[in-house]
């Protein structure tokens, strides 16, 4: 490792420089898509949170990832592009660094197994992208090693900065930035892993154990559910969850108009639907506690 003297560059100055560089890229016809985070939570939806929590559960990563949080929150990831098998990004630090995160595709047999285990459980692409499915399917999708999220052995990281070791703050920021991006475009996870998300949509007569629809309430992504799936210890979330659970409606077995309305509002709480229904929905009375719970799990560090 070597040390290099670098003059202090303020965040504002770095931002100005980065904006100039990105404008040049745009002129050359390169699409530029910065990671922008509103508020403290890096990710709010099932897909975004599951991406972050998957990475945090690996000890190789958990020590080094935190250094990326401030970076991603302050807008340092000035461009992030997702292609099949790769996330490419520019991160503004003392200079602008180029980061690449290569992710191997989901092996075919594994993908077939995920689809088989989830068959009949997800009715539409909208449900899939909004993360509206039973906890059984969530657990299957998030399963360590055999789910949809990559393990460190399936990821190769690189950065053009001089501090490059196994994971610098630029790479860590990009890994979190991908979580933020999945909130907005969950379909990019399927693109990255080179599988077709439509394979997960229910097909009549193929129902298997996980497909059995739980009570409608089971489709809600509660604040603590993901941490349960990932086996993380999150005392704060657990506390909030107890409170949330006591307010949960009784499971409904028949589909009525009321159930449909509830489903829609739950989707809003899940987060992805904010794009569709606007901010007003996200402020729904009981949605507040859940959104808050999710926020805490990532923001409190
Ligand atoms: Zn770096």
Question: Which key features would you list for this structure?
Answer:
alpha+beta, elongated, 15 helices, binds zinc ion, single chain, 4 strands, 301 residues
Short description:
With 301 residues, the chain is α+β, with helices and mostly antiparallel strands. It has helices at residues 11-27, 46-56, 59-62, 67-73, 108-118, 125-129, 135-142, 169-184, 187-192, 225-230, 235-247, 257-270, 274-277, 279-282, 287-299, and strands at residues 77-83, 86-92, 96-103, 155-159.
Account of the protein in words:
This protein has helices at 11-27, 46-56, 59-62, 67-73, 108-118, 125-129, 135-142, 169-184, 187-192, 225-230, 235-247, 257-270, 274-277, 279-282, 287-299; strands at residues 77-83, 86-92, 96-103, 155-159. It is of the alpha+beta class and 301 residues long. The chain has a domain at 11-200. A hairpin with a 2-residue loop joins β1 and β2 (86-92). It is elongated and about 55 Å long. Mean pLDDT is 76; it is low at 212-220 and 233-301. The structure holds zinc ion. Zinc ion binds at residues 97, 159, 161, 163-164, 168, 170-171.
Average pLDDT value?
76
| Percent helix | 40-55%
Biggest sheet, spatial arrangement of strands? 1-2-3-4
Radius of gyration: 20 Å
Low-confidence stretches: 212-220, 233-301
Query: Which percent band covers the strand fraction?
Result: 5-15%
